[in-house]
Amino acid sequence: MTHHIATDRKANLAGSIWMIAAMAIFAIEDAFIKAASEVLPVGQVLIIFGLGGALVFACLALINREPLFSPDVVSRPMCIRVVFEITGRLFYVLALSLIPLSAATVILQATPLVVVAGAALVFGEKVGWRRWTAIFVGLIGVVIIIQPGTDSFSVLSLLAIIGMIGFAGRDLASRAAPALLSTTILGLYGFVSIVVAGGLFAIWQDVAFVMPDAEISVYVLGAVLAGVAAYSCLMKAMRIGEVSAVTPFRYSRLLFGIALGILLFDERLDLAMVVGSGLIVISGLFILWRGRQVGAGK
User: Fold this and answer.
1) By percentage, how much of the chain surpasses pLDDT 70?
2) DSSP string, 199-260
3) Would you state the torsion angle of the CA atoms of residues 71, 76, 80, 81, taken in this order, to the nearest 10 degrees?
4) How many angstroms from the chain centroid is the CA of residue 273?
5) Sign of the C-alpha dihedral, residues 224, 225, 229, 232?
6) What is the pTM of this model?
7) The predicted structure's pLDDT at residue 39
8) How far apart are CA 58 and CA 168, in angstroms?
């Protein structure tokens, strides 16, 4: 029994380290994308980033001898997932290009709150008044960060909110996706969705593509490699440790995103950002803790 508990703790510790690594690399990916989008049109950044990631996951699938296409790929949940993935990626990258990295990262942290609310509304999962209160408090945190009705409000921050809702919808659709589809195939079609998002935006924006110089090429390549590495670390974390044990460490992305924003893009952290971030993180952690208590029948 003691050996079993020690093994679980060791697995959870390893899973937590993988999760923190994933969040750090996701923040680096965001920084690369933000840097690239300062020179390249957003549609072009999305297309190159999506093609690079899709190529990597396609190679991994072929190495694992997984078919790249099956009828499950065009199932209703997968089609819904693709629509949300396109929405999330497009609007989040637009947010990265137009608002501070730290603000976009913090708003993204509200995704788990929206996922829990969506699970209750869409899948009929039981969510008691305590978790609904926590969701409400977390969303108040988002409102505090964007500061509507004040001189500090920027309508561009709504791009990050739409992106966050898109990612929440993608996560919910992933729950309903056919179980036979591996994480590699989900990753492949996730990146294909990014290419579609980039193509649609490029057509709408109607801006000529720019030939990237060596520096910008490194940024885009760095974003692709970081995206694949972060996704792999995330999958490793979720498979090694207990979900309830490793998921709270998702919020470390907030710290990495804020730190990179300050160090690389000369961003400043104001009181609204600190208070709003605190409410989002506390609400998210409470929902995770409460979900564990309910699951345990307490």
Assistant:
1) 95
2) HHHHHHHT-------HHHHHHHHHHHHHHHHHHHHHHHHHHHS-HHHHGGGGGHHHHHHHHH
3) -40
4) 19
5) positive
6) 0.89
7) 93
8) 25
